[in-house]
Design goal:
The complex is a heterotrimer of chains A (389), B (261) and C (205). Chain A has 15 helices and 5 strands. Chain A is mostly helical and 389 residues long. Chain A is globular, with a radius of gyration of 20 Å. The two termini of chain A are 41 Å apart. The chains are: A mainly alpha (389), B alpha/beta (261), C alpha/beta (205).
Chain lengths: 389, 261, 205
Amino acid sequence: MGLPEGGSVIDNLVRTCSRCVMDESDPGIRFDANGLCDYCRNFDDIIKPNWASGDTGARRLTKLAESIKAAGNRRDFDCIIGLSGGLDSSYAAFVAKERMGLRPLLFHVDAGWNTDQAVGNIEKLVDGLGLDLYTDVVDWEAVKRMQVAFLRAGIPDQDLVQDAAFFSGLYKFARKYKIKHVITGSNFSTECCREPEEWGGYLGIDKALFGDIWSKCGDGKPNNDFPLVDILVYKLWYQKVLGIKVHHPLNLVYYVKKDAEDELESRFGWQRFQHKHHESRFTRFFEDYWLPRRFGYHKRRAHFSSLIMTGQMTRDQALDRISRPEMDEHFLKQEFEYVAHKLGLTVDELKALFDMPKKTFRDYKNKRDLIGMGANMMRILGLEKRYFR
Amino acid sequence: MLRPRIIPCLLVHKGGLVKTQQFKDPKYVGDPINAVRIFNEKEADELMVLDIDATVNKMSPDFALIAKLAAECRMPLCYGGGVTTAEQAARIVDMGVEKVAVSAAAVANPSLLTEMAAAVGRQSVVAVLDVRKHSGLFTAGYELCTHNGKLVHKLDPVAFTKQLQDAGAGEIVINSIDRDGLMQGYDLELATQFKQALKVPLTFLGGAGSLDHMSDLVSNLGVVGAAAGSLFVFKGKYRAVLINYPTPERKIKLCREALNH
Amino acid sequence: MICIVDYGVGNIQAFLNLFKRLGVEARRVDNAEALSDKDRLVLPGVGHVDHAMQRLNDSGMRPKLEELVMGAKVPVVGICVGMQMLAQGSDEGVLPGLNWVPGRVRAFATQPKSADLPMPHMGWNNLQPRAHSKLFSKGFEDAPQFYFLHSYFFDAEDKQDVAATANYGLDFDAVVSRGHIHGIQCHPEKSHHWGEQLLKNFVEL
């Protein structure tokens, strides 16, 4: 059995940014007179000038730590950190405990796709940092049914299912236990170049979209065990009314991917992943096989571009990595079967979904415009620096 | 030389993994296939998967689930739950499962073990006994239960187990209901009684809260199977679900030190 | 190509899974016509040896197998009871074995050194490979451990045929290699990376 092919092959006729490696496979990309893409311009004009590093960052970090400690004074823990076992959240946990002196509760959502490496990393951090762990195990049947519905919907945004589970699990917990401070591993250093929306980087958890996909592509029965906190409800209610604050300390410290990996490895025996998001077996499959071969979208372009912009990788190194998949053909073939069987599909059924006509979120009911307005408002107010079109 | 076996024991309830305390309050732990896969990566010695619904609901074994588990599992697998005939046992072994466990059906009819041994070989026949301390004030000792602790049988557990051994069981698993899920150590007194009486490989389940508990079991009893549910599935004071298992180095060290004790 | 002899006994699926992980083409064969001298053979087996021998005899594949193994010298590996079938006979039963490797299968229970040990021999044990053994020539720098599950063991007549021993009370012949004919008592298909390495070596011999 060969793997189904599809999508476009990287070719020289597609225009690429002169500095990073974002290219015209992002349909909305624009280039300036110097051949710089709009992501690079956004980095130069907005992110970099406002990036508090060095002493400024250190001062802000201390201030933040103090306010969190004060708020959580009489409780078992003063904040929670969503931990996936990947680099960003792992380093955020390390910073929170050791640099900021906080007493975080480590919060992990198990949506059924954990790699052994992710689980092992979580264990090493729990033991090494001496912190408590809480796990929210999402009902696997609910995740499976929703994921199959999304595949049947034919859209590129396949990781929304896991994202919804993680995001909703974390914030529901924060709300239930009245936790005011949430720390995440979001950072400019490895994420300043945002994954374009067309590549399945949808703007947030949209209950309208989930609802419509479920009614059109689900199995006809209710899926009430699937956790969903709508992004607008989250931003308005949870943040504004309940006062849950979300912090990104990795933007206030020196955060360079390789150095961070080395530090975690030497301190805790933490194991680095081959690539971003490889802590989830589904995401690894989705980003290394499904998205590139079915749609021609290579998320690694965005990931590497972030590293190029922040001086952690050269353009040539990035182009070289992109010229091959992360995982070899034999491995990908086994993963295709694994994913099919885990979702209760035959390999042929998954192949049929791979070959079906491509759709986008616009083929379903959605609040994209409303969410977009909200994101742009935040940008105008200076509350969001990454670039959304 | 042969070393003790360190065995994760997973309970299946309504198709998902759960963990109980004293056989009550099942807590959802996740997808069985993902757990099997993680134990593969960790090179676990063996895996025991018990379906706790089948017998009480009078259902036959979940063959679809068994096929998936067997296809995924790279270490010896023992499956139990709802097995009442030798034909079912043979079918399960043919799917790629090394051992088939029976409990209630063997207690009701020990000659089932003889039939199973004839069909699949003694080495693939496992009898699981759920044992609890007598609840009466004046009666000492242990009683034998089935159906998730709901039925009590008027039998001396040790003597009866010898009968099951003679009938054809190639391995006996003693499961302490009292210690289940409490993570406070194995019932060594109980374990010793069985070890002295039986000639087949033995495995003990119920109570392991740390690798030290397993060490204690082995240093007291020698080469046995040390099985655990909670220990390999939970972490920390909030009982956060996180699959874990000792590294090969840690495991060998534990076995060696405990046996030399 | 690897051909797993499916005569109705043994964990065929586990072998198919293992070879798939190794990226080696393997198939199951349950009739004589489909057997070919271009394949390497795997002979699995579990349960009572007489039951296995009877099923093999009834499968109709035995004459072709004899021709391929003894005539065309096709490489073959018998695993667990499949190894025991390679002998002249077994103390466990009455049917004669294939007699492809001279030797007799005996019960641990009849040997003074192992008679008092729990039966069956169940669990992880070390293999001591012999220096000259080709099956262990690659990838066994760390002491190999394998999963065993049996009450009877192979006693090779010609000790030159012994490729590895293991100890359960006594040292017994755990792996034999007589030219192109091999036997493995333990379960390589369930022994993690050691098992994979051993079968990989068989494929690459």
